[in-house]
Amino acid sequence: MFIKKIFRHISKNKLFFTILEAVTFVTIWRGTWGLLDKYLFPNSPQTSYLTSISIGILLLVIFKDKLID
Predict the structure, then answer these.
(1) Contact present, 17 and 11 (Cβ < 8 Å)
(2) pTM for this structure?
(3) Residue 41 backbone class (left: φ over 0; alpha: ψ -120 to 50; beta: rest)
(4) What is the DSSP letter of 1?
């Protein structure tokens, strides 16, 4: 009961959820970046960077219509 009251109060605060979303996004990005550094061409940083950039650009081109909306 007490937790529901707190959650109702917090859910009305848009700033809290905006900050929570930002922290969640950064955390996921940091974890993904760390995994790519470790497993995607770990002995060749330049190749890893170029491959990551290429994958990112390819995904943007593929999903550009979905991202605009």
Answers:
(1) yes
(2) 0.57
(3) left
(4) -
For residues 67 and 57, is the Cβ–Cβ distance under 8 A? no
Q: How far apart are CA 13 and CA 28, in angstroms?
A: 23
Higher pLDDT pick, 48 / 6: 48
pLDDT over threshold 60, residue 58 = yes
Q: Is the dihedral of CA 34, 38, 39, 40 positive or negative?
A: positive
DSSP for 18-68? Answer: HHHHHHHHHHHHHHHHHHHHHHSSTT-HHHHHHHHHHHHHHHHHHTHHHHH
Task: Return d(Cα 65, Cα 69) in angstroms, integer.
Answer: 7
The first and second tokens of residue 62, run together, are 């593929």
